[in-house]
Amino acid sequence: MDQPLVSVRDLKIGAKTDSGRDVEIIKGVSFDIAPGEILALIGESGSGKTTIALSLMGHTRPGCKIHAGHIRVGRRDVTAMSERQRAAMRGTEVSYVPQSAAAAFNPAKRIMDQVVEITAIHKLMPRPQAEAKARQLFRALALPDPDHIGSRYPHQVSGGQLQRLSAAMALIGDPALVIFDEPTTALDVTTQIEVLRAFKSVMDKGAMAGVYVSHDLAVVAQIADRIIVLKNGVVQEEGPTEQILHAPAHPYTRQLLDAFEPVPHVPEAQAGTREPILQVQNLCAGYGAIRDGVPAARILEDVSFRLERGRNLGVIGESGSGKSTLARAIAGILPAYRGNLLLDGKELAPSLSDRSKDELRRAQIVFQLADTALNPAQSIEAILARPLTFYHGMSGAARSKRVIELLDMVRLPGQLRHRLPSELSGGQKQRVNLARALAAEPDLILCDEITSALDTVVAAAILDLLKELQRELNLSYMFISHDLSTVEAICDEVLVMLKGRVVEALPAARMSTDATHPYSRLLIGSIPKLDTGWLKGLEQDPALLAQFAGR
Amino acid sequence: MKDLKPTNWTGRDDAMVEAAIRRGASRRELLKMLMASGVALSAGGSLLLRAGQAVAQTPVTGGHLKAAGWSASTADTLDPAKASLSTDYTRCCAFYNRLTFLDEGGVVKMELADTIETTDAKTWQIILKPGVTFHDGKTLTASDVVWSLKRHLDPAVGSKAAAIAEQMAEITAVDDRTVSIVLAAANADLPTILSLHHFMILAEGTSDFSKANGTGAFVCETFEPGVRSIGTRNPNYFKDSGPYLDSFEYFAISDNNARVNAVLSGDIHLAAAINPRSMRMVEGQDHITTSISTGGNYTNLNIRLDMDPGSKAGFVEGMKYLMNREAMVNGVLRGLGEVANDQPVSPMDKYHNPNLKPRPYDPEQAKALFEKAGVLGQAIPIVTSDAANSAIDYAMVVQQAGNEAGMPFQIERVPSDGYWSNYWLKAPIHFGNINPRPTPDILFSLLYASDAPWNESQYKSEKFDGMLVEARGLLDEEKRKAIYWEMQEMVANEAGTIIPAYISNVDAHSSKMKGMRANPLGGQMGYAFAEYVWLEA
Amino acid sequence: MSLALRLPTPARLGYSFNRVGRLGLAVILFWAVIAVIGPWIAPYPPGDMVDYDYFGPMSQQFWLGSDYLGRDILSRIIMGTRYTVGIALAAVILACAGGVILGMIAAVVGGWFDTLLSRFLDAFNGIPHLLFGLVVVAAVGSSIPVLILTLAAMYLPGSYRFARALAVNVNTMDFVTVARARGEGFGHIIGREILPNILGPVLADLGLRFVFIVLVLSGLSFLGLGVQPPNADWGALVRENIEGLSLGAPAVIFPSIAIASLTISVNLFIDNLPTRIRDRSE
Amino acid sequence: MLRSATTWILVGQRLGIALVTLLIVSFAVFFATELLPGDVAEILLGQAATPEAVAGLRTAMGLDEPAIWRFLSWLGGLTQGDLGMSYVNRMAVADLLSGRLANTLRLAGIVTLVCVPVALCLGIAAAMWRGSWLDRLVSVLTISVISVPEFMVATLAVLVFAVWLDWLPALSFGVNVDSIGDMLRAYAMPVISLSFVVSAQMIRMTRAAVIETINTPYVEMALLKGASRTRMVLGHALPNALGPIANAVALSLSYLVGGVIIVETVFNYPGVAKLMVDAVSTRDLPLIQSCAMIFCISYLALITLADMIALLSNPRLRR
């Protein structure tokens, strides 16, 4: 084997916390990357995967510092370089594709200026030549209108296109190594496929080495040659992609794989006979100034469905499909302007202020980001106690007791109630978020992407919890997600939404087989599989793509 | 003028002081010198001034003089009837003339008038100087004078001297150069009254006061209210001597410190009315001379006799004993003033009663009187304001004395803005400030007659009113003096106006500026200095 | 569980104060203590003329010299602390309380109420502060309540603007939506959900405004308005003794140092606040 | 076409709001003036304000009509560009104002020319080398300046430069201005004093705004492209910080029109602020109103200008 392009030896990186303590976040990591090889760094949030990737460019985020170890790229040791030498290396030898291209593009400058900037910084070629090369790359990345897209501003192109443009930006300096930092995480599944394909094709052609940072094994499986599994700044397992996927040696890797394929939900036997807990008829909702009873921006159009007590309804669709708006309209946060809502057979007023306290209590909403859903200034006890006081008039010892019970219900220790949300982990926060909804003793819980921001293992645990709670409390869930496997794991029925309308209602267990609407099929087919050949083998109808995903 | 020269002061001493001034001794050193020879501090001021004048030289012509007063606003005016700020007076003196003026000894001198005659102090004959022309070339005639005086009687003019002008019952032009004035009642002081700044003579029918058309020593070049005015020498000036300056620029620097700094840095030649606190800054500076004049300006504490607590017997007298006059003169005024005895006729005035001794500072006596009045220990408010010179500092001296006498006075400082219309004459106990007036008659009729418009303490005495009218018509100086002496005594003992000190005015000016002399009508040579001073190269 | 554990202390929230910040805090606390115990430690009554000289030098008898009337400067500074710190604090608390409450209401209510209030306060902000102060004090006199209210009125629009911007951000957070969906009333949303989350930056802002108010107060005193004599705030002390500046009189230097020490310390304290608080305020 | 139409509507809206604001302010000023004790006649007569004299003068000045009526007729005149006559000295407000306004604008202009470049450079430099000795020096200096009362700075400047060193005149107005050098000398002191006060705030705000944009992913991205620090800050951070910086500059500059009363006092500079104080103390309503309008217009103009800069510097808002 040739001398590796990159070799990292015993890398240790420390970080200073807000309170001034030094913590080691990378604890002695070593690996090599061969020329032309794509290495994936897999791990959950906090595993240090991005920190390691950035250190290959000699960069650490503010507050972090390389304490020990060596990083060799090409012939030189990055750790020993001066800042000026590192700057000379960035963009030409190693380049970077960021997680969120939307944030990484300067909103004040035209795309072309930013794409060719590397050539200007390092004086690689004259501007016209650079622009020609950029257009070539745009074409290679399958960007629409490659000759003119460069003259637009970042906010004028879609997220998937920006992500590909950022790849063009990274590739223009012909680097030996490209770092992809979760480049598709923020994208919808149908768009993700496009982007992945584009990346794969240019990487294959250019024979460049790459580091692909991701938490998603299925995505990594499509593009990486080798995988390193990280946890808490330590390498758990390293091996070729096939081996990691099919013959994992380390228990943590197995855990990751298990979480990827959750136990499918087994619906209870008797169906269709029970009274519906929620009925939605011809619901329409939107934002903006209301004129003639119709808001300026109409989001939901004519949505109807029914959800039976004790059963779960999934709502899937890509961003902008109106699934969150549906939850908000049902909860009354965004009053519907037309249509009917029936909770347990009784008519619900569209607006919050017209609903009774009891009606409000019976339908609770849980939001995606526990970080913003929990008041950071209140202790867990205060957060949980408020609905108890508000709906049930509880106070004093009885209330404290109930708070402990609620924490116990979501499998959290009672002592946690004195903590602030910032002192909890992401999973714990989401459990508290759930407990707060449970405190109201609702009949229906509207779950808005509650597992999307969590790491797979944690998300799987939350799903298990939801199932358990349903058994204990006879709850019904309306489960909104863009992640089909999650929906599959917990729901009885699934609504597929597109542009504010329900295109199809399917039984969850037989989604992929029963889907008839072309968009449902496209959506379901776009979910990456834990199979290295999936992307290559995937065939999609270009007409369909153009119609539904070519946004 | 009352001679303040101490008895053991000799010509040799004069010479010594003069020599010291030539050497460039500071005022402080000189004062020390004078102290050593046993001269009272207050007298020292005027001696120094005199010595300064003795080093006089012959006037030089030319130069541009820049001087700064302390008050200016958009209310600045060229209309003498409306003049109220010192800057207005200075401007009027430069651009216009009066019929008469007062010299540094307080003696009436003729200006536009050639002669003023009367036999009964009731009908007066004024003959004007010949060949006087206005800046626009028009010759001064009797009708100009008649018009200029009569306009004060028109309420639409808003004259400040309306109350005084009222007594001129008939003003007629006898011929081109003769004016006849018939007074409502006899008043021997008319020539002095005519020297008031408001009685400047304008060309008949003047209505535009954005420019001045007068007979004065300077022609108005620029007038920007609240900013500045510039005058150039009047080539056709009717007086034999003066003005010496080519041009004269006058503006105001309201901030005392800025004014002093400007004269120190040489940006201006004269800073008028500097605060006693700034004396140390200008003392010991060779290039700065101070001109000190003690006239009849005073700040007084007024206790209304018709209101509680002034109406309680003994209270006013107690307050008079509570005045720490020495502390006010030495502490607040830094020696630039003279202890006064609760009556308005200053030592500069020939009618001043020197036998009237100021009450001593006696908190014990005051306490006893307050006890008698039944107010001891009450927190009585005293209204004070920056509007009246040093009134706030006075108030603090009173408060400190009050603490010793068991009277916790409560000081209420109110804005100077609107003070005169809202607090002065109105509050039960408040401070006032009275500018020098040329005659006791004006002072008494303005401030102490029963129907006086500014009866600060609401003093009412029929006897006093009778004496006032009697003295006014007397042409016999000795008799007049006797009556005025008695009236001063009455005011000092009976009225509720407490006058602790006469305040000296200090003008700081460049040593190059010569010819400054003190004047009883106020600082800056009674505001008329521009005509008399010159600049040495 | 003890109470200490429940309180969100700086340490638990991940804050720490650095040395410069602590120094600032120390000076602030020093002046606060002086303000409280002032009357008991002042060597002379602040209004009494105790020195026969004026602008007296520092001496055994008068540690910081004497002023233009021969009053003891040390005593006057000590008494002035009360007025300067007291008035500025009262005014800044009023201004910020008013601004924050209005700002939160505007953020939550939104719509025409928000637009109207914002416009009106913006227009009010267009009037220069000192001029406004001059006019008010000229109109109604200069008692301590008037001073406090005037200063508070001057700084309320700024505080409103700041708080409104923060509250608008917090208002979009999910936990506020959750509270609203729960059916919570207006008071709970403002008092419990929004206020605690904007408190940090608001307090930092309060500190900066405090500095401005101290300076404006001294500016007002410079123009001859302010606390009733014989008492005086620090600005008035500088003002009444400014003639002594060219003589190097301690009477003007020490009050200036007092003002600067307080304002600089507050600035240092705010500037060195833990990033967690400050970043949100920047 | 559509784009320009919406732009015009936006501009029109802004102008409309500004007009309404001005109207509100003028009413507020009117009522505030009415609240003040005393009126023109009383104030003018001062100690001589006997009831008869006041009544006479009021009639003579035409103040007998109700105040609100006079105010409305002033407003009516304003729509025709007539600022009215000063009650106090019967001169046209426009004449009184024009000279003063020119003075104020001249001073403000010079300070702006001196301050804005210096403040921006220092602010950006401090942000660029955050934590360096330059940054520390700048922050210590700015803290000191904003912590010291303005009148101290001004008085000290006079004492040092005019009285002790005799380099510069103590007054900025009333000195002879014969040459450019003289003019520079005459304006040096107020400009120095004002610059200190105004730029400290600008430096701090600029620094904060730039630092905020430096902490964004796109600036990190520029770093990862190998850009130098200068390029990162000037090329990437600065264009996005323009909005907040313009806002800070506008706020600071608006101070130069009406907030310079202390500097005008100390240097005896006849500007609009002093004029307004005079007008208030003489209750000269047309003059007060006109000054207030000037302050308000300059404030609104600056704020609007800042908004426009923010709008133009941000392609997302530009549309």
CA-based gyration radius of chain C: 22 Å
Query: Percent helix among the residues of chain C?
Result: over 70%
Mean pLDDT level of chain B: 83
Number of strands of chain C: 0
Indicate the structural class of chain C.
mainly alpha
Count of helical regions of chain C: 11
Largest sheet of chain C: none
Low-pLDDT segments, ≥5 res of chain B:
1-17, 19-28, 30-55
Low-confidence stretches of chain C: 1-8, 278-282
SSE string of chain C, helix = H, strand = E? HHHHHHHHHHH
What is the β-strand count of chain B? 20
Proportion of residues in extended strands of chain C: under 5%
Q: Could you name the CATH class of chain C?
A: Mainly Alpha
Largest sheet of chain B: 10 strands, mixed
Distance between the termini of chain C: 36 Å
Question: Brief description of this entry?
Answer:
The complex is a heterotetramer of chains A (551), B (537), C (282) and D (319). By secondary structure, chain B is of the alpha+beta class.
Could you characterize the architecture of this molecule?
The complex is a heterotetramer of chains A (551), B (537), C (282) and D (319). Chain A is an alpha/beta fold. Chain A has 23 helices and 20 strands. Chain A is globular, with a radius of gyration of 25 Å. The mean pLDDT of chain A is 85. In chain B, helix 1 packs across helix 3, helix 10 runs antiparallel to helix 12 and helix 16 runs antiparallel to helix 17. In chain B, the strands form 5 sheets. In chain B, strands 1, 8, 9, 10, 11, 12, 13, 16, 17 and 18 form a 10-stranded mixed beta sheet that branches. A 4-stranded antiparallel beta sheet of chain B has the order 4-5-7-6, covered by helices on one side. Chain B has a two-stranded antiparallel ribbon with strand order 2-3. With 537 residues, chain B is an alpha+beta fold. By secondary structure, chain C is mainly alpha-helical. Chain C has one domain: MetI-like (MetI-like fold). Chain C contains 11 helices and no strands. The longest helix of chain C has 37 residues. Chain C is elongated and about 75 Å long. Chain C starts with a helix and ends with a helix. The N terminus and C terminus of chain C are likely disordered. Chain D has 319 residues and is mainly alpha-helical. Chain D is built from 14 helices and no strands. The longest helix of chain D has 36 residues. Chain D is globular, with a radius of gyration of 24 Å. The model of chain D has no long low-confidence stretch (mean pLDDT 80). Chains in contact: A-C, A-D, B-C, B-D, C-D. At the B-D interface, strand 10, helix 8 and helix 14 of B face helix 2, helix 3, helix 5, helix 7 and helix 12 of D.
